Every structure is written in C-alpha cells, then in structure tokens.
Amino acid sequence: MIILDKDQMRRNTAIFPMSSAMKLTGLTARQIRYYESLSLISPERTPGNHRIFSMNDLDILLSIQNYMEKGFTMKRIGEILNEPHKVDTPEILKYNEYQRPLLNRGDLSRFFQ
DNA sequence: TTTCTAACA
DNA sequence: TGTTAGCA
Questions:
Q1: How far from the centroid of its chain's Cα atoms is residue A2's Cα?
Q2: Which residue is nearest to nucleotide C8 (CA to C1')?
Q3: Which of A58, A96, A102 is nearest to A77 (CA)?
Q4: H/E segment holding residue A75
Q5: Strand B closer than 7 Å to the CB of A76?
Q6: A53 near A20, Cβ under 8 Å?
Q7: Model-level pTM?
Q8: Closest nucleotide to A31: CA versus each C1'
Q9: Separation of CA A26 and C1' B9 in angstroms?
Q10: Which domains does chain A have, with CATH numbers?
Q11: Which nucleotide is at minimal CA–C1' distance from A18?
Q12: Strand C close to A75 by CB, under 7 A
C-alpha cells in the first residue's frame, strides 16, 4: 500500500514548535537539535527555518528519553533507532518490555507521572 | 519574542 | 550538554 494509514498521516503532520516539543518531552532545545543531527528525528521546517514537530517526532524523542534512563549511550540509541536489524538482541528486547505505550488513543497519562 | 546556527567555556 | 553571540 502506497498511501499511509489516515492515523499515520495525521501523526506525521508537523505542527508543534520547539517550545511544545520541549515541554512535552522534558528535553532541552539543545538536545533535540542534537538528536536531529544524528538523524533520530526529521522535523519539518517553516519558511522561516524553524523546526515543526509531528506527534511521531515527539514519540521518538520520548523513546530516546526511555533508553537514556535505562543507561543506553546516545551511540547505542542511534543504532537502535536507525538500524532496526540491530534491535533483535537480548539486551534490547529485555528493555523494550518496559517501553511505555506510544502516543495514541488519546492517552495523556504519560504526561502526568 | 522565539528559534536558528555556530562555536566556545 | 550548557551557554552565548548574532540573525531572521
């Protein structure tokens, strides 16, 4: 199927400015820009060159937070997110069990821990 | 006023 | 990563 799922399209719609990404993920602008440089996320840009994030971008950012909390290095996280074939290691699978549910179904509980 | 890039402590 | 300078 060439056309993405309706929901997937909406989740890929970029509308959040840096300030929103920072509040929603708890990350600093510096960190977010750094992760983009590692191709972990690919936010769109406004005509003025300002980044605009989609829900999927934020979701990835949240996942990065999870991995960091579990002690993964940015190098390792980069491999995990950019090269799926490296994810099937006992090491990763073990931690994936603790991954929180993705940003969907209107579940906002993740924002209130 | 907010965000951006680049670069240095 | 933090922070700051100088732009847009």
A1: 23
A2: A48
A3: A96
A4: helix A74-82
A5: no
A6: yes
A7: 0.79
A8: C1
A9: 25
A10: 15-102 (1.10.1660.10)
A11: B3
A12: no
Kindly state the DSSP code that residue A89 receives in the 8-state scheme.
S
| A9 Cβ within 7 A of any nucleic strand B atom | no
Which of A54, A57, A95, A104 lies closest to A76, judged by CA?
A: A95
Tokens of A59: 């979701």
Strand B contact with A29 (CB < 7 A): yes
Q: What tokens does A9 get?
A: 């399209």
Q: Are A58 and A24 in contact (CB under 8 A)?
A: yes
Structure tokens at A1: 């199927």
Phi-psi region of A4 (alpha: psi -120 to 50; beta: other; left: phi over 0): beta
pLDDT tens by residue, chain A, 113 residues: 667 789 999 999 999 999 999 999 999 999 999 999 999 999 999 999 999 999 999 999 999 999 999 899 999 999 989 887 776 666 666 566 555 544 444 444 444 43
